[in-house]
Amino acid sequence: MKEDIKIQYECVDCLNYFRLSSPIKFCAECKSENIRVVDKADYNDFIIEDLNLTELQVLNIVSVWYINGMIPDILQNSNGCELDEIVDDLFFNKLEEEKLIRSIKL
Q1: Which residues pair with 18 in a beta bridge?
Q2: How far apart are CA 81 and CA 38, in angstroms?
Q3: For residue 3, is pLDDT > 80?
Q4: Theoretical Cys-Cys bridge with 30: which of 2, 14, 58, 104, CB 3.0 to 4.6 Å?
Q5: How far is CA 20 from CA 17, 24, 35, 42, 104, in A?
Q6: Phi, psi (deg, nearest 5) at residue 18
Q7: How many CA atoms lie within 13 A of 90 on its CB side?
Q8: Percentage of the chain with pLDDT > 70?
Q9: Looking at the structure, do residues 33 and 62 belong to the same domain, yes or no?
């Protein structure tokens, strides 16, 4: 079975990204013909999907980046919680949920 090879395109005018297996001639959003193929070395909008990362893995990565200063300390929610607190809550809630699901015997 042949796998569809998807190429990532970018509209230079509106900066939308498209990931398609066939070439495109214009942007679906703004109808511009100013389209470029995104180099593999460029930013990848689909890295989570491409690496098959779980939600827990993504939360852990975000937490490590924040703690190591790779994300600015300016991100807060409406309750005043900073990103590290938000991610920790999400991580441990998701972890407890997965433990509960595993513990249920059918």
Answers
A1: 9
A2: 36
A3: no
A4: 14
A5: 10, 8, 13, 17, 40
A6: -135, 140
A7: 17
A8: 87
A9: no
